Known about the structure:
Blueprint: H1 14-19, H2 23-32, E1 36-43, E2 49-53, E3 56-60, H3 77-80, E4 86-95, E5 98-102, H4 104-113, E6 123-132, E7 135-141, E8 144-149, E9 170-178, E10 184-187, H5 195-199, E11 207-216, E12 219-225, E13 228-232, E14 243-252, E15 257-266, E16 286-288, E17 299-301
Parallel strand pairs: 3-5, 13-15
Antiparallel strand pairs: 1-2, 1-4, 2-3, 4-5, 6-7, 6-9, 7-8, 9-10, 11-12, 11-14, 12-13, 14-15, 16-17
Amino acid sequence: MRIFLPEGALIADDENVRAMQNEASLKQAQAAGQVLESRAILCDSAHNLHVSLGTMRGVIPRSEGALGIDNGQVRDVALLTRVNKPVQFIVERFCGDTVFLSRKAVQSACCQEYLRSLQPGHIVTAVVTRLESFGVFCDVGAGISALLPVSQICVSRIEHPCQRLRVGMKIRAAVRNIDHCGRITLTMKELLGTWSENAANFNIGDTVPGIIRSVEHYGIFVELTPNLSGLAEFVPGLHAGMSCSVYVKAIIPEKMKIKLVLVDAFSQTITPESPFYYVRSNRIEHWLYSPRTCEKVIETHF
């Protein structure tokens, strides 16, 4: 199976740089069908993308700018938003000092040779391209998007994906579903560890950092890791999003609970960091989050 990388992954690659040194090297890349990558420097009034090729002028005609652009399935804004960003393409033809390129051909090959071979449970590398309240759009190869719903980012409750991810972040995610149109839905929480794996990082008596995720009348839910939260007693004047320090009072696997005591809380801007992944394989078939001693079962079957 040929793997296609998200846009931005090839631009600094030595082979990619060598291929765009001059006309001869570009013709060699054309003959080999090599996927190249460079930065889009202009989208003209006809929505053709102009690409930096060093000594030559590269143009991706509008009809070759994206898979689905010619039949209206993809809007022209998808081309406008590529300006000043990397785009992948193959060389199609030469006309004087202008090289005509196709991004659509790369995306079509990505679908045929890579994405259509994926099944639920396959783990892919993706790059976050857009954050919405309902989820995250990710480039899973050659600029093709997949959706990571906010509910599938982690076990801990978050109000918006920006609390966990940022645009440009490279992530790993599992394929959750592929619909009849080929649209891919992703999930990440199954890669971030089970309750027991996360709880093993804490000991009774420790005082550790956390993030307040929810304030209820019966207590405060504090995120210790993306896939692990504990409950502290209610304290007035606090709100979701605050940073805090908490004392670990009890760890109860059979009830899947961690009891905490709030030590301090304060407002602080937190930049999302790349998550730690517990799953190292290329596919996951079953994920049991809850401890085996716990009556409540939380699991995912792919």
